[in-house]
């Protein structure tokens, strides 16, 4: 599938007309799937590699959604005596979700989570630290993807991008698995009562959330960047030679493909 062109199409939860509460329910479902699949096990390895290569232990997570997998990754790294401080950001920040995540870490401890409550544009980020983008890079068409990487180069901030590799296996199998996960996990989601009842309604009575997960996951896997496409974007950056770039895939269930950029001394 690497030889096929990347499909540039829309996902339902990205549309301007999607109600914010529905977008929140969707991103919360994605976070639940991260937990169910233990994605942090494979997703943590590229970040650990970047940290060993000199990346800042201050992590600035872009496109954090409802918290994303980075806090889960932080716990796994902490268990390996790798300590980080995480800042959650998003173009449309889910502040209540960020607050819930940050309360799970004591401020000032070796591992903490804070957040930026205002909008942070991944193409023009001014927050210093190692930038991470987990499961969201495929949302950006090539010109915007290049601007994200260019901004990291221009500001000399390390960057770790992790997404799923583009494979027919994931296109044909994973949407059914993810939709089943949404159906099974809905009663166990931790939400305030009104949103919990709305989740049950939109899962079992009017199955908007399962349909949304299925549609968006199919489109997501078709939008994933291949390794050759990532290399072309990197090669087209101004000053790309000032960074060391690593592109690879972690073996495992999630098919985690990564792009690491570290400023050269």
From TrEMBL:
Keyword annotations for this protein? Membrane, Transmembrane, Transmembrane helix
Reading the lineage from the top rank, the first entry is: Bacteria
Membrane-spanning regions, if any?
A: 168-188, 200-222
Per its record, how is this protein called by name?
A: Class I SAM-dependent methyltransferase
């Amino acid at each position: 599938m690497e030889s096929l062109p990347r499909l540039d199409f829309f996902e339902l939860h990205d549309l301007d007309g999607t109600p914010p509460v529905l977008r929140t329910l969707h991103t919360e479902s994605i976070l639940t799937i991260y937990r169910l699949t233990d994605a942090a096990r494979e997703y943590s390895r590229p970040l650990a590699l970047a940290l060993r290569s000199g990346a800042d232990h201050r992590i600035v997570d872009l496109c954090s959604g409802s918290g994303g997998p980075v806090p889960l990754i932080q716990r796994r790294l902490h268990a390996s005596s790798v300590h980080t401080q995480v800042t959650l950001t998003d173009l449309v920040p889910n502040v209540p979700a960020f607050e819930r995540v940050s309360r799970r870490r004591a401020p000032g401890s070796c591992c903490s989570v804070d957040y930026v409550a205002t909008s942070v544009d991944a193409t023009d980020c001014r927050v210093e630290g190692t930038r991470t983008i987990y499961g969201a890079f495929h949302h950006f068409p090539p010109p915007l993807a290049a601007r994200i990487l260019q901004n990291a180069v221009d500001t000399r901030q390390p960057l770790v991008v992790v997404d799923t590799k583009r494979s027919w296996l994931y296109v044909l199998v994973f949407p059914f698995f993810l939709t089943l996960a949404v159906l099974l996990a809905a009663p166990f989601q931790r939400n305030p009562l009104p949103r919990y009842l709305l989740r049950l309604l939109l899962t079992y009575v009017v199955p908007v959330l399962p349909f949304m997960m299925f549609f968006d996951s199919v489109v997501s896997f078709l939008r994933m960047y291949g390794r050759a496409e990532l290399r072309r974007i990197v090669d087209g950056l101004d000053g790309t030679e000032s960074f060391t770039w690593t592109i690879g895939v972690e073996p495992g269930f999630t098919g985690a493909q990564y792009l690491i950029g570290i400023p050269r001394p």
